[in-house]
Amino acid sequence: VTAAFNRISKHYEIRTVTKCRRYEQVFICYGPHDNQRLLLEYGFLASSNPHNVVNVDKDLLCNHILQKNKLMDRKMLFLQDEGLLG
């Protein structure tokens, strides 16, 4: 398929590159996206989305949440090693 916003019709269009009959049912696989991307790209949310995430700014985490935690350095290192910061 090809997918894009059509500026003339002002609709998001998904077109098949192979033939299908009129009114034939087709399926779209959106792939593993979090709800933010689904909403921004396609205009909907998935209520039980296993790929959903919450992005937290590193400065917010350091300055407000972990401020008084004695293990902050070790926790931040763990988050960095796991690729969860950035």
UniProtKB/TrEMBL annotation:
Q: Which residues form a coiled coil?
A: none
Residues annotated as transmembrane: none
Which Gene3D superfamilies does the record match to this protein? set domain protein methyltransferase, domain 1
**Cross-referenced InterPro entries:** SET_dom_sf, SETD3_SETD6_MTase
Gene Ontology MF terms in the entry: protein-lysine N-methyltransferase activity
Task: List the PANTHER family.
Answer: SET DOMAIN-CONTAINING PROTEIN 4 (PTHR13271:SF151), UNCHARACTERIZED PUTATIVE METHYLTRANSFERASE (PTHR13271)
Protein name in the entry: Rubisco LSMT substrate-binding domain-containing protein
